[in-house]
Amino acid sequence: MIVAVMMVPLMGIVGGAVDFGHAVAERTRLNTALDAAALVAARAAQDADAAGKSDTDVRTTAEKAGADYFNAMKNLPKDAAGRVEVKIADRVATISASYSASMPTTMLGVLGYKTLPISSNATSSVNLSPLVDIHLLIDVSGSMAIGATDADVTKLRNKFNCAFACHDGKSFTETTGTGRNQRTVTYADTFDWAQKNGVNLRINEINKGITDFVNDLIKQSASSKRLRISVHSFSNDLSQIVALTSTLDTAKTSLPKTPSASSETEGGTHFSDIMPSFADIVGKPGDGTLKPRKLVIIATDGVQDPNRLWSHSGYEWMRPLVRPFDPADCRKLDSNVTVGVLYAPYINMPWDWGFNDTLGKPSQIGGPGTRFDDIVPQLKACASSPSMFINTATTASIGDAFKAIYNTYKTVRLSQ
């Protein structure tokens, strides 16, 4: 009799361990589904916002998407109650998801416990399309007239013994063919020759990238209504190409002009000098609700250059001034401005004496290599975060590089 009596609690203890094990496993399974449902709701909120829906519709759409995902889970406990709630504040949608359910027991039933309760919650958040001012700062110095690819550089070198197509107004004629097929063409300068003979230059690629980027922004119907864009270029001086406007198309029709090099003092890269003025133009950002956030995208090869005088005898003292950008110049912008850097890679030219006497010289910042080797680290330090630095050589197009920087505003993250 005593043994029989003791068997009941013993069976309850052993059975309890089994039942609790099953409950833990089921809770883990449901928690994984709940986390996914919270992210599904966040993505649905973002998509609904991008489609131009009201905040009320955004909430309804997101809540339904998250709940539908959770409730479609296979072998869901019959009494499982999944809940998804969306709140929108300051252009951020916060999703709170939770569930409660009960697990039928087996052995614990002997002790009168027919079910075990399980529950959990998860939260995700996503930035909806805020008010954003996008300021493009485009390098149009002489170096931006370099061939866009190695093949383009080779064409220029074979023709002019120079990797750059100079927009210097020095016209020349070229005669091709013989006899009846002979023809003579006059070109305004080597830049003109490059444009008419299939040589793609870096500035061409940058401008095409701006056009592709703006087209992509316009396709996002809702967010484009909350965007403004400006375009500035810089060489020796800062120039306004497009004043800040919500008419995004303007940035496609008014593109930065070709690099000028009509004299030895033009076509420089005075990044340090122009940044204080540019910082004043950009100003201080807001939180994206009533006052816009600020995004600056700098498209450049990252090399400060006073002008072309350094290539002449008597001006050797200027050669140390040909150097990578200083990240401190980017800090002239307000600290709350987000800075993206689109790097159009400077081409390593060890065959060029000018390169060897400037960027080919040892690092000026204590690096182990040359000034050329310092370009990328300095530009990465200029960007607000590692993800805001894009080397265009790693993307399918420069337009994709612009988009990659902008899309960092749309990161969905699971916060709990």
Automatic annotation (TrEMBL):
Pfam family, one: Tad
Highest taxon, organism lineage: Bacteria
Domain Putative Flp pilus-assembly TadG-like N-terminal residues, every copy: 2-44
InterPro entries: Tad_N, vWFA_dom_sf
Protein name: Flp pilus assembly protein TadG
Species this protein is from: Methylorubrum salsuginis
